[in-house]
Amino acid sequence: MSGADNQPDWQAIAEKFDLWLPQLEPVGEDLLRGLEPFSGDLILDVASGTGEPALTLAKQNPEVTVVGVDAAPAMAAVAQRKVDQAGLTNISFTAMAAESLDFPDSCFDRVLCRFGVMLFADPLKGLQEMHRVLKPSGRVALAVWATAETMTTMHWAQQVLADKLPEALHPPLQKATSLGADGVLDDLILAAGFSEYEIHEMPLFYRFDSFEQYWQLIEASDIMKMQFDALTPEVKNQVRDEVALFAQQYQESDGLVIPHAYLLAVAMK
Q1: 20 to 30 A Cα–Cα from 198, which one of 70, 179, 187, 230?
Q2: Residue 199: in which H helix or E strand, if any?
Q3: Share above pLDDT 90 across residues of the chain, in percent, rounded to a whole number
Q4: Which uninterrupted H or E stretch holds 240?
C-alpha cells in the first residue's frame, strides 16, 4: 500500500500505469482546453503520474515550459524517462508531494492536476500550495472523480468485494470520490484562496472491445493487486464473473462502453 485509504501502491505499479492512459486521454484533453496556455507560460503539473497530460501539453506547445511533480518517485522516474527518450527540452519531472511544493510564491502561470487532488493526504493543503505558487491572475485546471455511483468500475468492485474482504481491504472508492458530492469541491477551492472558479460535471467513457479485454487490463495493471492477493483463485474467478454481470448492461454492438463522470474545475487566483 501507498498509505491510508487502500490506495494502490503507486510506486509498484508505475511501470504498468500507462496501460490506463488511453481510457483517461479525454480527461487530459478537457483539462488542456480549460488551462488555455499562452506562449512563454511556466506551467506546473501536480500529481503527474507517468507524465500525462503534461507530456502532451509540452509537445503541442513547444513555447511553454512544463514542470511535473509526483509524490511517488517511481512515477516521476517513468515520466522523466519519456522526456529523455523523446528528446524534449521544455519539460521535466521530479518527485515532490503536492502538500509541500518546493517552489517560490507566485512563480507559475498555470497549474494542472488530473485525478490527484482527491487522493492527496491533505487535499486542502495541496490546493493551497497550488494557489501559493500561482501568479496573480494565474489559472488552475483540475479534474476529480464525481460521485461513487458514477465511478462505475470501482463501484462494481466495491459492491462485489464487500462480502469477500474485510473493510480494510475494500477498494478506495470513498477516497477516490471524496470531492464529488455537490458543493464539496466548491468549498475546497474557496478555502484554498481562489475567488473565481467554474466546475462542470463531465462524462468519461471507458471503451473496450469486450469484457475480456477490460478484465485483462484490470489484471495486467495491478490496479487491484492488494485486493486480488487476498483472494483465493476460486473467489477471484467469482469476482470476475460477478463484475461481468454488471458489465453486461453496457455491452454495445461495437464493444463494451462503460460510463463514468468526473468534475472539471477551472479557477483563477
Answers
A1: 70
A2: strand 196-208
A3: 89
A4: helix 233-247
Contact 200, 30 (CB under 8 A): no
Q: How many separate helices (H) and strands (E) can be counted in the chain?
A: 10, 8
- Are the beta carbons of 221 and 213 closer than 8 angstroms? no
Residue given cell 489484471 in the structure block: 219
Which one, of 50, 51, 16, 14, lies nearest residue 217 by Cα? 16
Q: Pairing relation of β-strands 108-114 and 91-95? A: unpaired
Domain holding 56: CATH number? 3.40.50.150
Q: What is the dihedral of CA 40, 42, 45, 49, to 10 degrees?
A: 80
What pLDDT digit, counting tens, does each position of 30-87 carry? 999 999 999 999 999 999 999 999 999 999 999 999 999 999 999 999 999 999 999 9
487476498: which residue's cell? 230
Contacts of 107 (CB under 8 A, 6+ apart): 42, 133, 135
**CA dihedral angle for residue 153, residue 160, residue 236, residue 115, rounded to 10 degrees:** 30
What is the chain's alpha carbon radius of gyration, rounded to the nearest angstrom?
A: 19
Is residue 4, in this structure, part of any structural domain at all? no
Q: Which residue segment(s) compose the domain that 218 sits in?
A: 17-268
Rounded Cα gap, residues 255 and 168, in angstroms: 34
Consecutive H or E run containing 197: strand 196-208
Taking residues 210-228, what's their average pLDDT? 93
